[in-house]
Structure formats: structure tokens, C-alpha cells
Amino acid sequence: MVIQRWQSVLLLVAALCMGGAAIFPLGPMFLVISILVAVLLFLAIFMFKNLRRQRLVTLISSLLIIVTAFVGVMSMPAFCFWPLLLMLVALVCAAWAYRRIGADDRLLRSADRIR
């Protein structure tokens, strides 16, 4: 069986990475934003019927990952490598999912034009 929607897998990996980053005790603001981003990424998986909304939620999540990384760096007393690595992986996966959602949208539009 071939996976048709790789963006769902990428969004799940990004959500798990953000959930993993929330485990590290870097402050309550970091915890809240990390959990919010993880929930948004997880909910984006189930928005496959509305690709524009899925793409928007993925974009917002990507921006929030950047904000979370900034808050995490500012609140860390010492350099902590693992949460930043998890956030970087989550950002790459979310950006890749964003591109895949756009490719699916273009493919569906071209198929609709043919009909």
C-alpha cells in the first residue's frame, strides 16, 4: 500500500516533535505555546477536505514554531540543544507539509479543470 497523503505523516511528525519539545522545563509560556502548536498541527491532519484551511493552519503553526523557538531561546538559562532540535525538525516537517498541501491543491484544481 502506498501512502497517498504524505503531508498527514509530516504533520503528525511535527506535532509529535512539538509535544516532545513541550516536555522540557523552559517556562510556562514555552509550554503553552508548544502545546498549542502541537494541537494545531494535529488538528490540521483532519482538515484534509478543506485544503485551504489546512494550509492556513499549517502556516500559522509554522509561524508559532518560530515564536516558540524565540521564546525558548530567550527563557533558557543555559543552552539546551534538544528542544531546539525538536522545534527545528517540526518546522522543517511543517514547511514540507505546507508545500505538499499546495501540490495536492494544484493537482485537484487541474483535475477539476479537465472534468
Description of the molecule:
The chain has 115 residues and is an all-alpha fold. The chain is 82% helix and 0% strand. It has 4 helices and no strands. The protein has helices at residues 6-22, 28-45, 51-75, 81-114. Helix 1 runs antiparallel to helix 2 (28-45). The longest helix has 34 residues, at 81-114. The radius of gyration is 15 Å and the shape is elongated. The mean pLDDT is 86.
Q: Please mark out the parts with pLDDT under 50 across 5 or more consecutive residues, or reply none.
A: none
Shape: elongated
Number of helices: 4
Helix content: over 70%
The N- and C-terminal alpha carbons lie at a distance of: 27 Å
Question: How many runs of DSSP E, i.e. beta strands?
Answer: 0
Short characterization:
Helix content is 82%, strand content 0%. The protein is built from four helices and no strands. Helix 1 runs antiparallel to helix 4, helix 2 (28-45) runs antiparallel to helix 3 and helix 3 packs antiparallel against helix 4.
Features:
single chain, 4 helices, mainly alpha
List the helices and strands and how they pair.
Layout: H1 6-22, H2 28-45, H3 51-75, H4 81-114
Helix pairs in contact: 1-2, 1-4, 2-3, 3-4
